[in-house]
Amino acid sequence: MSLTIILVSGRIEPRFDLFADSVAPQLDPSDQVIFVDQFVEYDPKRIKDYKELVDHRFELTHITPKPDIWTGKHRKTKRSFANTGSFRNTGLIVAKHDYIVFVDDLTAVYPNWLNYHRKAADNGQILCGSFRKVKNLKVIPDGSIHYTETVVNDQRMESQITDDPVKAGPNWIFGSNAGMPLEYLLKVNGYDEFCARRGVEDCNLGVRLGNAGYLDRMYYDKNCAVAEDDGYHYKFANSLYCDLFKYDIPFRRYKTDDEEDQNKCWDIYNQMLDEENEHLYGRKEHTTINQYFDLKAERELYQQSGTFRSVENDTYTDYDGQPIEEL
Roughly what angle, to the nearest 10 degrees, separates helices 295-305 and 84-94? Predict the structure, then answer.
């Protein structure tokens, strides 16, 4: 089965080179690789730069995220917020194949990584792969990876004693390494953009997939592994909220004033959490809280016109009554 691999980035300096060098030997010619890159809309030359990096090894669909009220040129907020769910939904709109694999933007994949996802695709499974955060990550010419030190190990590995995959729980689905049928994602309406600003959209997705009846399809396999270059989290361009060459660096804030009331910030966070918990665990909903995004409709629009839906009429009012234009 052909796969669609979706990598999203809100960083000026992602490690797409690591991903490209490690995944290239594993790809079939019919596989689709989508790179949703926030900074293409500010610097279109990045498309040419990354195409040269790929160097004809595979076909790359390199696109800007769909219009979004929280970040990018179409945003309605005063400053830019993170909305990774919207970036991943952009990939789902453009996806051509029936099985989707998600990976993060500081990542190299281990040899045979895609084979584990292909097997899961053939069996209609949701596969959660393992990760480790490391220092001095490199990919050598044969596609294998090397690093000097492990900073964080995936604790889920301890639950898999043998090489046989084990059943996974909904909160084991991380966007850094997970695959699932597009059919399942369509049923739950993709990622919930309610999670903008806060994140944790991947675990939210896992719970909704479970609520939709796919719990028995969820598996974890430590051998389906990726490594993440931990040092690049802390590079200047990737870690600070600043206006650098007129770029907006998304940062997870609940308000945007420089002198922010942290108590109000946490109060809003907790109200978000209460609403989400009631939706996921109280009513056991599988659809999204956010009602503006409709994955099926937006896929149809893109297939027919090659364009994304306008967010001109989308709006938001925060829990304390502030309209989105004041955030």
Answer: 50
Q: Kindly tell me the number of DSSP H helices and DSSP E strands found in the chain.
A: 9, 14
pLDDT of residue 238: 52
How many angstroms separate the CA atoms of 217 and 127, rounded? 8
Instruction: Give the torsion through C-alpha atoms of 242, 243, 249, 255, to 10 deg.
Output: 60
Which is nearest to 193 in space by CA: 103, 297, 298, 83? Answer: 83
| 3-state SS string for 217-276 | HEEEEEEEEEEEEHHHHHCHHHHCCCEECCEECCCCCCCCCCCCCHHHHHHHHHHHHHHH
CA dihedral 264, 269, 270, 276 (to 10 degrees): 150
φ/ψ of 253, rounded to 5, equals -125, 155
Phi, psi of 228 (to 5 degrees): -115, 135
Q: Hey, which residues does 244 pair with through a beta bridge?
A: 247
Residue 35 CA to residue 48 CA, distance in Å, equals: 13
The token duo for 180 is 């699932």
| pTM, entire model | 0.93
The per-residue pLDDT for range 85-130, each reduced to its tens digit, is 999 999 999 999 999 999 999 999 999 999 999 999 999 999 999 9
All structural domains of the chain, each given as residue ranges with its CATH number in brackets, are 4-313 (3.90.550.10)
Please give the Cα distance from 91 to 7 (Å, whole number). Answer: 8
The DSSP 8-state label assigned to residue 309 in this structure reads P
| Token reading at 289 | 């809280």
